[in-house]
User: Fold this.
Amino acid sequence: MVNDIKIKIKQNSIIEEVKDISNYIPINFTYYDPRNSLFKAGRRDRERVTVYTCNNSENCDACKRNKCAMLNGLYAHSCSYGQIKREEGYTKAARRCGDLIRKRKDEYGDVAYSKGDLKFLCYIGDYVFLPLPHLINYSNSIREKNFFKGDGDIIRKENFTPEFIVELIKYRPRAMMGGEITSYQREEIPKFCSQLKRYMPDIFDKVKMIYPEIEDRIKDIDYKDKEAKVVTLLPGKVKLSTKILEWDGSVIKAEGNQLTFWGLTKEPVVITPDENTYVQIIDSAMVTEDTEFKDE
Assistant:
């Protein structure tokens, strides 16, 4: 590599043993080009690329839904199965600025920006990702730091017991200066219980046996107007833009006058959605354990 290119590599590991990188495959690629930045870039700003690799993508519920824990946080999030490689290339002022980005696009362009940050409860190999804040804090952490892996929201699968889940539900984190962080109980726990029921129904049933009150935490949840992938919803009415259309489980049905930009009247129109077609939910009963929400 030419002398002007500086390479920085961060091993994003939360396990103790040395990793064999030969088993890692690229799952996501991002880059920063100072020449095309939305914000004003200085002449000394360098092009940057980041490659995320994983050795367990086939056994990761997050990766299967195009999400990744390593994308959480401002700088990076730890994952037992992942590594992050960062590189810096030429400055904006250099004539060859962009060389590094072009080279890495040739190598990893097929996974460019293919993953999003992780916001839902899921299994990651032998671990569980908990989408809950404040579990480690300055006042009353739910467990010692070494109970968690890395950033305080991943635990070993064997520790994700019904009893511990009840602790999570009852937990009331406190702020550093005193006082309860009320958003945890008001907002986070109903969402967590809902995800537990949808994504891990067997675990939910076990929790319900020792803590029937868990049903009370989700009874008021309403999915109306939330955006979700239409192909993950049961048939029913959905909203696309401002129009109420019919989803039959295979296609979205409409009348021509609902799509005025075509200049039609009552002609039947059929829209075949793809994996990334999002609609607004009209009826919460359309939601299943497979439903994928845009904000998750």
